[in-house]
Specification:
about 350 residues, Spore Coat Polysaccharide Biosynthesis Protein SpsA, Chain A, two-stranded antiparallel sheet, globular
């Protein structure tokens, strides 16, 4: 691997049974990769011919076959290790970047030198927004901002967000290395949220480039089992990334929310995955505590500033059961008290 230009970019795509999507992805990327750029396909044990197809679609693409399913986080880590460009662009295989997408994402590296990571505006196939940037509730629940809203809701200019979507995410290599990339323990779901909060915690910033567009074949409902990963990984992030004062002040709300989520899970058909997630959190608690030591050791901002990247609003379209008027005001009031208390603490 040779030294690269300061804006050279590697596109990293993690595949698993993704062959039907690859022709569209490669076609969309055609002409967008510059000299010095790279493209790496990391295949997580597909049986549909995805690695062979990727090789046939582009001679300049490096294809790595893992021989096992390492999950999204594990695949991304392997792809990042296989290149040395200053910029890493992680794309989902079922995405199609607009013709100027990579150029606009590349320009953001110069325009926002304090950004450690940023994303394109991810769009649904019908032209509505998939995500304009991740949003994180103080309970650690994250979702895609402006999901299913019309494209007109997108901001006109680049702005900062809580976390970038792994579907179309650029990360500076130096930030990636400093934070040791994505956490492979997550396997899938929530690893981009975790990375975003760790970037903020380490003093780096995170943003979205709305003019850069990526179309994504997205669906949220992938069975009740998805809730296991969402809930297990949410707790791993909260317990390891939240500064101690934030975690202490939120403990009553976190424990109360567990009871409420059990009720919602039972009503909506994912109680089993929720209970398995709780058991997994308890089994992995020692490892999470060790991880907390590493993450907090890199902290460069105070608790109040970190809390500023969280919200009391639960506007996720996938948690309708939690968006009731009876909860909205108490949540907002509780969060106001927490933030007030944090503002009184010494830096």
């Amino acid at each position: 691997m040779a030294a690269q230009d300061s804006d050279a970019m590697t596109v990293v795509v993690v595949t698993h049974q993704s062959a039907p999507h690859l022709p569209g992805l490669f076609s969309a990327l055609e002409g967008q990769l510059r000299e010095g750029d790279e493209m790496v396909i990391v295949d997580n044990d597909s049986s549909d011919g995805a690695p062979e197809l990727a090789r046939s679609l582009s001679e300049r693409t490096t294809v790595i076959e893992t021989g096992e399913n390492l999950g999204f986080a594990g695949g991304c880590d392997i792809g990042a290790d296989a290149c040395d460009t200053p910029l890493l662009l992680f794309l989902n295989p079922d995405s199609q970047p607009a013709p100027d997408c990579l150029a606009l994402l590349r320009e953001a590296a110069v325009e926002h030198p304090d950004w450690g990571a940023w994303q394109a505006a991810v769009m649904l196939e019908d032209g509505r927004v998939n995500t304009s940037g991740g949003v994180v509730h103080y309970l650690g629940i994250g979702w895609a901002g402006d999901c299913e809203q019309p494209a007109s809701t997108l901001p006109l200019h680049d702005r900062e967000i809580a976390f970038p979507s792994g579907a179309a995410m650029v990360v500076r290599r130096d930030a990636w290395l400093a934070l040791e990339g994505l956490d492979r323990e997550y396997f899938m779901y929530g690893e981009d949220l975790d990375l975003g909060l760790r970037l903020w915690l380490s003093g780096r910033r995170v943003g979205v480039v709305p003019a850069a567009r990526v179309t994504h074949s997205y669906e949220f409902d992938k069975g009740p089992g998805k809730w296991f990963w969402l809930e297990r990984n949410r707790w791993r992030t909260v317990l390891s990334v939240y500064p101690a004062p934030v975690l202490a002040l939120l403990s009553p709300a976190l424990l109360a929310a567990e009871l409420g989520l059990l009720v919602i899970a039972a009503r909506e058909g994912w109680l089993g995955p929720k209970l398995r997630a709780q058991a997994a959190v308890l089994r992995g608690l020692a490892g999470t505590v060790r991880r907390r030591g590493r993450v907090q050791g890199a902290r460069m901002i105070d608790s109040a500033e970190f809390a500023g990247h969280l919200t009391s609003s639960l506007e996720s379209p996938y948690l309708a059961g939690a968006r009731t008027p009876l909860l909205r005001l108490p949540q907002a009031g509780y969060w106001w008290l927490v933030q007030r208390a944090l503002s009184l603490l010494p830096g």
